[in-house]
Amino acid sequence: MPQLPAQEVPDSGDASGPRFSRDNTLQALPLQFVGAARDYFGVWLVNVLLTLCTLGIWSAWAKVRTRRWFYGHTRLAGAGFDYHATGGQILKGRLLAIALLVGISVITALWPRAERALTLLFLAGMPWAINAGLRFNACMTSWSNVRFDFQGRYGRALLVFVLIPLASVFTLGLLAPLATQRLARYAASSYRFGAAAFSCAPRLGTLYAALLRSMVLLLAVCLLGLLITQLAGTAMIPEFSLAEMLRGLSGPLPNRHRPLTPGLRMFLAVLPVMLAMLYAAVIVAAMYYSACAHNETLSRCALAGGHRLHSDMAPLRYIWITLSGLAASLVSAGLAYPWARVRRYRYVAQCITVLAAPGLDEFISQQPARRPGAFGAELSQLEGFAVVSSL
């Protein structure tokens, strides 16, 4: 493994965070992505054509080829990542998922009274299904010939994937930072690199500060939306006025004896624009919070042996890269999608750094290299439950 110049990294100073090595001389190993969009374009185009020709069957192999391409071009300390699943394994899991969903549909059609019980049973099984999908993908991923693993527990999965997110929805997002913190703790403590465990302790105050900034951004985009609404309304109705529109909304509703008021006509004319701007504001705010949470959770992650992670992604730049890539894909009828995906993946990857403690080579050599075989066959059905949990 190539040796990079050592870098002094200050300790977190937070007693509640993960315990790291007392030696502050950590080696900065940046994550590198060496793939080119023109190369991925060929992989993507073949996958699209074969998926269409096989009525979707090839999508299982398409997923494998895509992940192997991205993982293989992602380098850490000179070594690439690898994805070991096969298209046959994924297809088998998806067929199992389809059979399960068809069975549920048939039972509810024959016995309608069973629908509520099956729905509750389905929701109760979601945490297990999510854990199964996460374990499949983790166990099929490796770096330096050492595989990852995921050993999540049902009870904690039920809490972080179902109960806390539901509470966050009912509190209009006020518990979103708590949900992020608990999810990061659960995921990190469940992942393994070989036999080495991860840990993560995101700071709740930092996450709430990110939520506050995202709300300010939401308000700013909404104000911009009002300006765009005014311009669009004026283009459609010369006498358009936001004040007149609001007065029309506060008046009595129209009926067959009371025609539409000018304010209501203005409102109906610009309603699609207002909904589009509101949707855009929510998406932008969500992406901003997601980027901030990504930085906080990764930068508070540690691996046994004193190794740490760090992420310095700029949220506004991440939003620009994502939205400009989406716009390019729409304008080009999807042909720019490979470029947009590679561009976004490269930026996120290159913002991540591993801060390795001394003795990283020995640490890796001590990890068991799990061999494929019966283990892979045993997990092949778990991919299907990831499909079920995402529906």
Automatic annotation (TrEMBL):
Q: List UniProt keywords, sorted A-Z.
A: Membrane, Transmembrane, Transmembrane helix
- The name this protein goes by in its record: DUF898 domain-containing protein
> What InterPro entries would the database entry show?
DUF898
Entry keyword Membrane: yes
Query: What lineage does UniProt assign to this protein's organism?
Result: Bacteria, Pseudomonadati, Pseudomonadota, Betaproteobacteria, Burkholderiales
Q: Does the keyword Lipoprotein apply?
A: no
Organism listed in the record: Achromobacter pulmonis
Annotated transmembrane regions: 41-61, 95-111, 117-136, 157-179, 215-237, 266-289, 318-340
Instruction: Give one Pfam family.
Output: DUF898
